[in-house]
Hints:
5 strands
Amino acid sequence: MTKQTTEFSAGGYGDHETEFKTLFDTLGSALQNLIFDEAVTPAASAESGSAGQFCAVMILGHSDRVDTPGLTPEQRRADELAASTSRAESARDWLFDQIAELVLAAGGIVPADIASLQNVALPIAACGSADLIHVTPASPAERAENRRVQFFVSTFSPGTP
């Protein structure tokens, strides 16, 4: 079995921003290329049926700590979880759209939806503020770094020694 794993993050969301496409457009070309080279292209290749390849892209959504006065701890956690869930879902949906475009360009059959993918898995998880880069952010920039999505990409070909 041949397999490869890769991990990377894309961060810098504004407060309560969740749209991955908007974030992606602001990322530097090196990170944009990394996302395409390490996640989009291998997933599209696997979904096109290339030589028994499979690809799983786990997407974790993260939030900064909510410090809004007047909110209960439960309300703060709910807000953090909602933002991180939306970030992960948006990144997954964007990734699916990119995969579909490449499969179509290759002459393949585009899956109707995420559940219809045959050789690709796109699970998500929301982390809320459980894994902060900056536990006590000293600036808005540090808060933005906490608001991110993480990609864990695993590609494998079961029949290859």
